[in-house]
Amino acid sequence: MATAPAPLSLSASTLPARLRAGAVPAGARWRQARRGRMVVRAKIREIFMPALSSTMTEGKIVSWSAGEGDRVSKGDAVVVVESDKADMDVETFHDGIVAAVLVQAGESAPVGAPIALLAESEEEVPLALSKAQELSNGQPQQAPPAPTEDAAAAPPPPPAPAAAPAPVAAGTKGIASPQAKKLAKQHRVDLAKVTGTGPYGRITSADVEAAAGIQPKSKPAPAAAAPSVGAVPQAAVLPPVPGATVVPFTTMQAAVSKNMVESLAVPTFRVGYPIVTDKLDELYEKVKPKGVTMTVLLAKAAAMALAQHPVVNASCRDGKSFTYNSNINIAVAVAIDGGLITPVLQDADKLDIYLLSQNWKDLVKKARAKQLQPNEYSSGTFTLSNLGMFAVDQFDAILPPGQGAIMAVGASKPTVVADKDGFFSVKSKMLVNVTADHRIVYGADLAAFLQTFAKILEDPESLTL
Amino acid sequence: MQSTAAVSVSASATASRGGARSEAARRPGGVRVCGLRGEALACPSLRISQSPARLAVARAAATNGAVAGSGGGFDYDLVIIGAGVGGHGAALHAVEEGLKTAIIEGDVVGGTCVNRGCVPSKALLAVSGRMRELHDEHHMKSMGLQVSSPGYDRQGVADHANNLALKIRSNLTNSMKALGVDILTGVCTIVGKQKVRYGKAGSQDKEITARNIIIATGSVPFVPKGIEIDGKTVFTSDHALKLESVPDWIAIVGSGYIGLEFSDVYTALGSEVTFIEALDQLMPGFDPEIAKLAQRVLINPRKIDYHTGVFASKITPAKDGKPVLIELIDAKTKEHKETLEVDAALIATGRAPFTKGLGLENINVVTQRGFVPVDERMRVMDADGNVVPNLYCIGDANGKLMLAHAASAQGISVVEQISGKDHILNHLSIPAACFTHPEISMVGLTEPQAREKADKEGFEVNVVKTSFKANTKALAENEGDGIAKLIYRSDTGEILGVHILGLHAADLIHEASNAIALGTRVQDIKYAVHAHPTLSEVLDELFKAAKVNSGVSHSVNEPVAA
Question: Is this prediction's pTM over 0.90?
Fold first, then answer.
């Protein structure tokens, strides 16, 4: 890592080295490309799409802070990337001139794919440009519908459409309005092939939409919206019911969708457990004024139980081994506008409930503002999902990739219970249901874990220690 | 490239004037409201006995020989040439200081700002802001609102702008009349020392004398050569504000305040816009970080494209069945790059001073590119670099800072000096705003300017930033786009600059500009309380985030003179 630094870092200096390391396996292609560059073209560096989170497989360029021809120095923010979780400034590791932007603002690229070329000096710029040409011809990105056309349109971005037609003549032909140009780029329409119907024979946005096969305005065509979800294998798409509105996934929703489909590859099973919560409720009333929430109490209890059952805190990454995690980091599912995010309470077994509550408050605030750092949402080793507040009595959760188990907590409600002597009484009872990866966690493991968890909650004084 | 002027001051001028007036009326010694003016002047001794400050004024005025209106044989204590916002501000303050004042206007009261600038443009922007909101389905839906196909009536929008201008103009006129300012009509020429002639152009038949004269003639849109204005398809902000048409595609030459505001109006009303900017970057006058974000928020998602680093060397209006033709040449090599065909072109390349015919040659003053040379006290300098006594120039005509409120502040500064109180205006404390959606505002230095100054003077600069995404009120409005940044000296806590892009940024900047004007330091202002939840907490957060090196705790509250 140290000798061959990944070409990009986040401007946020808190980015753990782990993340950058995590970016490396993202593409063997990347590594090859880099090696090639080191030897052959030492003065032209590629800027890659960085991995901003462990779940990120592709990123969308929100905007380029540096344009083609701009001189940048090490540490300058050059591009803003929208990952599945947040918008991030990405800075360069090298001084140089941005010779060619390979992926334009608004477009997406897989993690590890080159998104721009950085030349060390003016002299290298033409070389970089020819390389850009080479790259876009050689590896059509993401296999869009018409790769050849795309490659031709991609390299020199703005002048292409305007410069293509004959320069003088009557001038009118081939002129496109600003919005028409934007749409053409978005839908990969070659403006040279569009006949303008606007004033003075100009190409309007309606012409481009017609060429792209889009009917009226407000319905974004599913085909056009597909690229961000492209990786997900989809069953035959049924035609929408007439009058339906099609809303493409946001990046976050696309990430959720992808994770959910991936989870199907993991063999899971579920174990439920009833827990009497009268004492827990009492404790909660006591600590509530100090800012402790039920979520934190549950997370703390889960963490304490996980400490005794490390296998439930383990994960199976390659299908061949157990990965025992040294920390117990409880991810808690939080619904936010337009999606779902899982802020992580790190070292939940070690911190007391007051500290955890403070951390939790900060995390939720950041989550709502979409300002969570990658390590704050992607470092969980166990997930907690609580729908008790909606009076759900029980449900089961889907195991997120990379974790061993996830716990689904229902509402606690008064229930008639009979004790072993046959006496009836009314106790508050809640049902928890854990989904686990059966490759590493077996039924008895999970049952034992749940028993410990229940014991902690039924005699909750230990939570406050 | 001072494309600043005009379209940027809020319409609050008259309102605040009204406030100042009533305060003057309440003050016991301050008998300077119209009806009482004569009385005040009749018994100056009474004032002298009241306050030492007044004594100084009276003494200074007495040495000038102009205590009373007719004193020293002059018709007026002060004659102001030009009744724009600058002249108006000066006139009101002059009356407050007990000066006999006249204002000469060759056109209509209110000048550029009220009639062809900030005021009508605010009316158009108010419309564009609402249109934008109503058209943003996603935004509406996220708040649970449903709106079906909003539209607009062009004439109705145009009338709104025109009515606003009329109303503000009459407010301005009335406020001056009520205070006893003589409003004289005609074009005006300085014929000699302390003497002007005015009247119809060509036959200026009336001559008056004044102890002091302020030139406040303002500016007109600057049109580079090669551009043919027809007022219909190729026009300046003067015509655009009448909104006689909403073209399908309009090119805006210049991406400063004026161009940016009009791009907001036109795109909201359905036009597509092409910016033509001579410099390599859009919005060259702004703090680079703000410009970058502004491009992300105000340009990229809209129906706008742009050409930078190019001049529009020739623009031909639409005629003979041909569209507007714009020839672009490279700003550096001057080589022809391409020809644009659009439906209309708005020339927003800045403003040129309006100083022709003022008769400056009669008093040995030579303008520089039309601007009247002045010193830091707005005193006019002659060709030999000497101060011309009793002659001042404020506002766009001197080109120091082409903003309506800057002109007014300069006018007040001049009246202070005439009244015997030395006064130098700190231009770094004057805020500026661009009323796009969201708005942009700024005061003081940009970050690169501050860093340069720090390097030169050897102090350390710190920058803190906050996002509107972290502000409750902004999120309640579903308007989380935007940032605010504070640039300050980390050793003393002096505020060097504040830049805001976000909801109501123009209204938020004043806490910062007042702090700069009054010399309030970060370490003091951070304890001031802001109502929750309000947008003002954006600034609160900045002040609280700023770290000042220990050693200086609380500052002495002395104003920083620039």
Answer: no
